[in-house]
Amino acid sequence: MMETSRDRLWISIRKRNVHVLCISHYYPPENGALAVRMSENAHAWAASGATVTVVTCVPNYPRGKTFPGYQNRFFQREVIDGVNVIRLWTLVSANEGILLRTLNYLSLLLSVVIASPWLPRPDVVLSTSPNLFCGVAGGLLAWVKRRPWILEIRDLWPESIIAVGAIKNRAIIAPFEYLERWAYRKAAGVVSVTDTFVKHIVTNGAKPEKVHVIKNGVDLSTFSAGDGESFRKKHGLTGKIVASYIGTHGMAHKLETVLMAAAELQHRPEIVFVFVGDGAERNKLIALRDKISLSNVMFLGELPRSEMPDVLAATDISLVVLANNPLFRAVIPSKIFEAMGASKPIVLGVEGESAEIIRKARSGLVVAPENAEDLSAAIATLADDAHLRTQLGENGLNCVRRQFSREVLSRTYLDLLQRVAANSFRARSSLPLPQSLKS
To answer: Domains of the chain: which residue ranges?
Structure first.
């Protein structure tokens, strides 16, 4: 049978000539887990030959202040690591307070709709949630552009805001739950970052065959050259055993537990607790530290992503904690993979799927969530045993090399995007070729 131009085009899509348009509320130079996952994937896809466009906001997270060098304009472009980045206007807000944050999230959805005539027509649209408005924006843009839509679920939303008690009124929650079910039904594919989310996604409308699990991972090259000694000297940590918490200081993390553990270890002056990051609870945590006079706790605030290898290189024990809530048993904090990639032992105060990863990899100690006594005991155990710290760190590195390398996971993700784009193209093969696919 003679190969037609459309057949060749379909094959070219499968071979990586695909244009992916991603909608993400956060993107570098912001530092959060969502920004890191999206940017590392986007960079890997672009390096593999795909055309990648990311639609996002002006960088302002978590303080709600526009980063130097940027302006909150309606439409602006830049290129970062081979990725085309389009930033749209949003109602900039700090990462605190339900009303302003909701308006911030909603404003990106509205900006995507308004800007849709000026956004490129891709082969596939990908949007990531939380927040759900960002996810829905992808569905609306895909409908406008007549392209397939992939919805990525990083946290169950609105379930996660219910879990932390941010919203309790069922009348307010109901419309969000309707949007959630609509999104699961309409998406051509749903990507979950955990196995545990799958049951919820299918129960709420997604067809099982359309749900794919692509977990978080780590770019191993990022943490191969961290300068821990310089970081220790800069912050007066030379000779100390550093137990670090790196990430958002939010309601879901219950970081008061870490402060209580620090209080129990004040008689061990060689152990220092270092908090890196920002969030809605940070000022409360600093006030609590000062109230109970903890001399072994440091808050360094938000640091550039480029300094994270140095922070982890200076770390002896990586702390990963969440609130004691059944919903969080389904969550896998992305920071565990970064700690494992940096060969650092983990003390994990989370139950469920993430605990299974740590236990199976033998890369840390698992304690009960919100249990300061267990947490302090685990930290003391690792502080007293340098050999155990080294062994757990090596185990973690070996695990991420096998299972959670960003390079491998990004390739799997791109293969999925290619299949969805190719199948959609074949389904509409009687239509004229889109400009982005013409040779």
So the answer is: 5-217+405-437, 220-403
